[in-house]
Amino acid sequence: MAEKDNSFVKFMNNLYYAVDAPVTYIREKFIVPNQKKYPWYHQQYRRVPTIDECYTDDIVCYTEANCQFMRDKSVEDEILFILRSRYEHCVFYHGDDRHLCDDLMKAYFDASAAWFAKYGDMGIALNVKNAYMKQKHRMIWERRHGPVGSGMRSQPTEA
Question: 0.85 cut: is pTM over it?
């Protein structure tokens, strides 16, 4: 050792290893092998078939798809809440130097635009079937007229 091995240093090392050895042994032999292998701290649900994979008369499949849709919506709501909070905290912290928060503002606006494209204007009839129909109608519109928000073409293209 680089330092002098006097009796105090030896005593402290022995005391450290007397306390540390059982703790390390229990952690390596019992705790780590029995830990769950996924790094998630919230409940993970298995993915069920989406509404476009369900038969029209399969109520169970429709209900599972609707529950998964609602869970996904609540997760996306929380993501928007976190992004908005980060942006607001950044603006509050930096004050007049709001240009430092532009990347957070862009991430929030992009996420909110995607959220609105999926869930917006659905009102009280928010379920997986109506969201699927909204997506279908949006795709038909974009095929005929171009991306939403770019204005209508003068002549619709043949699909």
Answer: no
